[in-house]
Design brief:
Elements (H helix, E strand, L loop, with lengths): L1 E5 L4 H12 L3 E6 L2 H10 L8 E5 L16 E4 L9 H22 L8 E5 L20 H16 L5 E5 L3 E3 L7 H8 L2 E5 L7 E2 L1 E3 H13 L6 E4 L7 E2 H12 L5 E5 L1 H17 L11 H8 L13 H4 L6 H14 L5
Parallel strand pairs: 1-2, 1-4, 2-3, 4-5, 5-6, 6-11, 7-10, 8-13
Antiparallel strand pairs: 9-12
Helix pairs in contact: 1-6, 3-4, 5-7, 7-11, 8-9
């Protein structure tokens, strides 16, 4: 198959591109800069990069002329997941995606031509009401920006194309840096919990390796309906306290002490951090507690929606539980020298 992947240098995109290449697919990878490409090549094996062709550019100004005329599928992963500016989510996740999709439709004649578009969105686009699969109620700007992109693609989808929307929860694995600050905190011997209910907070998650295999299943599935939505996640959710303790154990740290932050203090603290990060202390930009993230934290548990039908999410064999995923991620951090 000939497949375009956006967000190819990210956590999921890099693993997926390499896997597809190893399976002898022709992968066209959108890469923002040559330095990003060079950094990726250094980390990956030459064999895994054999069938990957980089296309340098930005999503909103994608050079369509560099794509093959007989492209089979697009897997859209490019997104901003962390920002102290809510406007940045809408600029990149909504508007840039809209422009990219509109240009894609204009570039390829749609009459009697099939093309599979896999939009890797987020559980945040649905919200944290796991008892209601049908109604989307995102609580953050990030989630709203992803939902807006989904809605645009649905509305503009050519009749001969198929659309697969994949909404994963927390994704963890090697090359993931989202848990690095958590690991550093645990190394110092403690972790922070919102309020006193760390043992009551539950989170769905998925290993990057399981997600890649799931996306391969979606890519190769026969879509009888024009549009489908999936919520892949490891069958057993993880408690917040267990999450922190397991990471500490797999990293070889001592048992961490738990400190609670009053819920009433979380949003003001996030607003302060975002203000300092964007106006006075740029080094704070990497801190994960942002104004937008505080909305998701205060919403409570994040679980994938329940479903009765035995869809692909249920039939899929998940191989990586949280303990194994954390072990592999912490080993990667140590290998890269991020933690010792």
């Amino acid at each position: 198959m000939k497949i375009l992947i956006t967000g190819s240098t990210g956590l999921v995109g890099s693993h997926l591109s390499e896997k597809l290449s190893l399976l002898s697919n022709e992968v066209y990878a959108l890469v923002r800069t040559k330095s990003k490409w060079e950094e990726w090549v250094k980390k990956a094996s030459p064999r895994a990069m054999k069938f990957i062709t980089p296309i340098f550019g930005e999503l909103e100004n994608f050079p369509m002329e560099q794509l093959p005329a007989d492209l089979d599928a697009v897997i859209h992963l490019a997104a901003v997941v962390h920002s102290h500016s809510p406007e940045e989510f809408f600029k990149q996740n909504s508007e840039a995606t809209k422009k990219f999709f509109a240009n894609l439709v204009a570039h390829y004649p749609t009459q009697n031509r099939s093309l599979k578009f896999i939009n890797v969105s987020s559980l945040a686009a649905h919200g944290n009401n796991h008892k209601d699969r049908k109604h989307d109620l995102p609580v953050s700007s990030y989630g709203k920006s992803k939902l807006l992109a989904e809605q645009f693609i649905r509305e503009q989808l050519p009749k001969s194309w198929s659309l697969e929307i994949v909404r994963p929860p927390i994704v963890m694995g090697e090359r993931d840096l989202a848990f690095l600050e958590v690991a550093k905190m645990l190394k110092r011997g403690y972790y922070l919990a919102p309020g006193n209910n760390g043992d009551e907070l539950h989170y769905s998650f998925i290993s990057v390796h399981d997600l890649v295999e799931f996306l391969l299943n979606v890519l190769n599935s026969d879509n009888q309906a024009q549009t489908r939505t999936y919520y892949p996640a490891y069958p057993k959710a993880i408690k917040y306290d267990d999450l922190c303790n397991i990471i500490a154990t797999k990293a070889g740290f001592s048992s961490p002490k738990k400190y609670t932050i009053p819920k009433a203090a979380i949003r003001p603290l996030a607003v302060l951090i975002s203000f300092l990060a964007t106006s006075i202390i740029p080094a704070l930009k990497n801190i994960r507690l942002t104004r937008d993230k505080s909305n998701e934290i205060l919403a409570g548990s994040w679980l994938t929606p329940y479903q009765k039908e035995q869809a692909l999410e249920k039939k899929f064999e998940y191989k990586y539980d949280f303990a194994l995923t954390a072990k592999m991620t912490m080993a990667y951090y140590k290998e890269q020298g991020y933690i010792k």
